[in-house]
Design goal:
single chain, about 170 residues, alpha+beta, Beta-Lactamase, 3 helices, about 20% helix
């Protein structure tokens, strides 16, 4: 594979990665009677086990952009820089920025969480991770923020399943 990114949409019904599964359950529990949770419903003190893996993005409209309000420390280390205050447009390489914009636009339009397995190859290195993106809406309906949690994974030898084992970055 030459430099690029390959993504696979994964079902939310059977999240095998424990940290992502816990965050999804947390988000579901914060919903307000069928409405989307808002930022005020999310307390980082509730998930210290995930903090370095979490990003919070503001949705900006016209033009549509996603700005990092918080870029988790492990995520920033992974990218080699902290994107807090910057948009996904600033992420390099361009093919990766384009993928982020596409995935976050999907969350915005559908108002539903997404889970993707992402394989990125750049400069001869290949990394695979899972990213759960969760919509937040202060009014319960209009997505104004996206909470993400990502973690690296390694495919198990049996490639006939979509089972992965966690691989911490530290």
């Amino acid at each position: 594979m030459q430099d690029g990114v390959v993504t696979t949409r994964m079902p939310l019904t059977d999240i095998e990665h424990e940290t992502l599964r816990k965050m999804h359950a947390y988000w579901v529990a914060r919903g307000r009677g069928g409405l989307l949770p808002g930022r005020r419903d999310i307390d980082p003190l509730d998930f210290p086990w995930a903090l370095g893996l979490v990003c919070l993005l503001d949705v900006e409209r016209e033009p549509l952009r996603f700005r990092y309000r918080v870029d988790g420390t492990i995520i920033a280390d992974r990218h080699g820089e902290d994107f807090t205050g910057r948009t996904t447009d600033d992420v390099r390489p361009d093919f990766y920025a384009d993928m982020l914009h596409k995935h976050f636009s999907e969350v915005l339009q559908t108002r539903q969480p997404t889970l993707y397995r992402i394989l990125i190859r750049q400069d001869g290195q290949t990394k695979t991770y899972l990213r759960l993106a969760l919509p937040l809406a202060d009014d319960g309906a209009t997505v104004d923020k996206i909470l993400t949690i990502s973690d690296r994974v390694t495919a198990l030898p049996d490639r006939s399943t979509l089972r992965f084992q966690e691989e911490r970055l530290r």
